[in-house]
Amino acid sequence: MNKLPFGKKNYQWMIIGIVTLIIGFTIMTMDKQPYGFGFLGLTLGPIVVLGGFIIEIFAITRTPEKESK
């Protein structure tokens, strides 16, 4: 009997959150302004990263559904 701490949907949301974080950090590195002080580095990238962390928190705190056998 395999007892994982999270359900399948929790792991799917965690992967979505990790991908969102990677996209957000990538957006921040694409800024052409010196030291990342442009729109991508100061506004868009951090908002996407914050969204990724919110998705991760949701994935961790979400109660897994009972799977029927």
Main sheet record: none
Shape: elongated
Main structural class: mainly alpha
Q: Mean pLDDT, as a whole number?
A: 91
Given as residue ranges, the uncertain stretches (5+ residues, pLDDT < 50) are none
**Terminal Cα separation, in Å?**
12 Å
Number of strands: 0
Discrete helix count: 2
Total domains? 1
Computed over alpha carbons, the radius of gyration is 16 Å
Strand content: under 5%
- SSE string, helices as H and strands as E: HH
Structure description:
With 69 residues, the chain is mainly α. It has one domain (8-61). It is built from 2 helices and no strands. α1 (8-29) runs antiparallel to α2 (39-61). The longest helix is centred in the last third of the chain and has 23 residues, at 39-61. The model has no long low-confidence stretch (mean pLDDT 91).
Give a topology summary:
Elements (H helix, E strand, L loop, with lengths): L7 H22 L9 H23 L8
Helix pairs in contact: 1-2
Can I get a quick summary?
The chain has helices at 8-29, 39-61.
Task: Give descriptors for this structure.
69 residues; mainly alpha; 2 helices; elongated
